[in-house]
Amino acid sequence: MQAHELTASQAAASMEAGELSAEELARSCLAHIDAREPAVKAWAAYDPDRAIRAAREADKRRASGDVPGRLLGLPFGVKDMIDTAEYPTTDNTPAHYGNRPSHDAHCVAIMKAMGAYVLGKTDTVEFAAAGRKAATHHPMAPGRTPGGSSSGSGAAVADRQVPLAFGTQTGGSLIRPASFNGVYALKPTHNLVSWDGARHYSPSLDTIGWYGRSPQDLTLVAEAFRLPGADMVTAPPVESLTVGIARTHNWDAAAPEGKDALERAARLLAEAGARVVDIDLPAPFADLNQTQRVMMFGEGRVQFLAEYLLRGAAMHQDFVDRVENVNQITPRLLAEHLNLAARCRETFDGLFGVDLDVIVTPAAPGEAPVGLDTTGDWVMNSMWTVLHAPCLAVPGHRGPNGLPVGVQLIAPRFADSSLLGMAEAIAPVLDPDLAA
Predict the structure, then answer these.
(1) Torsion angle, CA of 150/154/157/161, rounded to 10 degrees?
(2) Residues 31-54: what's their mean pLDDT?
(3) Which residues pair with residue 122 across a beta bridge?
(4) What is the mean pLDDT of the chain?
(5) Residues 379, 253: contact at Cβ < 8 Å?
(6) Are 43 and 162 in contact (CB under 8 A)?
(7) 149 preceded by a cis bond (ω within 30 of 0)
(8) Which of these, 77, 79, 71, lies nearest to 165 by C-alpha position?
(9) End-to-end CA distance of the chain
(10) What are the percentages of helix, strand and coil residues in the chain, rounded to 5?
């Protein structure tokens, strides 16, 4: 196995054991990027020389005993609407080309403080919101979308170009690409990771998360961010878990392969000894997809006003429409949906306890759609984003074209560490690549 094929946790362990150097890992990733970037187009910017220098510095630190944590020497990708001091943040919008932030976003600074380094910026949908799509292709099926708006991050990790990458989610922009590309992702509880230095769309929804290729990879980053209990994640026995299967009111929007992915998960978990039950969510939850849109469009008016006043007609029509409120989001309507969201969050958290440990539900309607003019439908993600619940994407199923179709695990707010532990137990049951 070449170094770039290692998961982040495997690479970290190999470097700690002295079996792999950070420079060897960097050179392997860069060689693979060089071979694959013309087809995948995951990167908005990267600098091989800078990466090699950063990797050598990590090796020097390790040799001298200066080891800040398990991330030392690991490269990671950063979605190109999150600020980095060494690369432009373009937001995939023409007016921001060449924009050079003076400081790293908080999430980037934390990774650096723990010894990781930025390999480059990954392509994104414009402002991680609407407008222009990323140039990125699905790494297994050129001509299909890798999902979005975290398009480049999901594709780069799936294609073994980088072991970790940041994405964001306002509707389904982190979990849906994970499903399409067959990788793991964690959308933490809302506001457990600082948004400082990233471009907002809807502050009530926007959440920074990350991609990896195993649950342990996700935990590795969660430890760096000091998510509550992340330093004590343990995998419970599968047979001790009560797993709720949530088809939800969105079930009719799922493609056959999306439905098959969930039914397969239910069957495999039951065969592994878990107690598997059907979960019917209360009636008000049926309105939460609309709540997500009202919150997103209503708050988006504020976030894009400055660009609108400066650029006017030069902006993509999607953003003009948000500022001019073509969706007619009134203050009263926004308040009603914000109140509904708050009530449903409390109800949702109360579902968990002795009779329910985790929910499993579709992560996307089905396989990645054909075309780069779409990023797919976030219908399977909206509700969970509104609930501020931690969501963890798990691959394993394949659709009719042999492409990944995942599920997601959902836990109550602030139960991120428990979710990570349950993912470590559940993932080998669902993911044949991990079990191998």
Answers:
(1) -70
(2) 98
(3) 43, 79
(4) 97
(5) yes
(6) no
(7) yes
(8) 77
(9) 14
(10) 45, 15, 40
What does the pLDDT read at residue 436? 52
What are residue 431's phi and psi, to 5 degrees?
-110, 100
Catalytic residues: 79, 149, 173
Does an H or E element contain 256, and which? helix 256-271
Distances (CA, A) of 80 to 43, 90, 123: 9, 6, 6
At 143-170, the pLDDT tens digits run 999 999 999 999 999 999 999 999 999 9
> What CATH number is given to the structural domain containing 240?
3.90.1300.10
- 81 to each of 92, 97, 99, how far by Cα in Å? 8, 12, 11
Res. 399: pLDDT tops 90: yes
pTM: 0.98
Number of domains making up the chain: 1
Ramachandran region, residue 226 (left: φ > 0; alpha: ψ -120 to 50; beta: rest): left
Residue 114 has what pLDDT? 98
* Residue 46 parent element (H or E): strand 43-46
Helix (H, G, I), strand (E, B) or coil at 115: coil
Q: What does the pLDDT average to over 368-390?
A: 98
Helices (H) and strands (E) in the chain, counts: 15, 11
Q: Cα separations (Å) of 230 from 82, 113, 225, 310?
A: 24, 17, 9, 43
Q: Are 143 and 39 in contact (CB under 8 A)?
A: no
Distance CA 347, CA 357 (A): 15
**Contact by Cβ (8 Å): 322, 300:** yes
Measure the CA angle with vertex 305, ends 302 and 310; round to 5°: 165
* Beta-carbon contacts of residue 157 (< 8 Å; ≥ 6 apart): 77, 163, 164, 165, 181, 183, 211, 212, 213
Q: Please give the angle made by the CA atoms of 411, 285 and 269, to the nearest 5 degrees.
A: 40
The model's pLDDT over 88-115, given as tens digits with 9 standing for 90+, comes to 999 999 999 989 999 999 999 999 999 9
Range of the domain at 172: 1-436
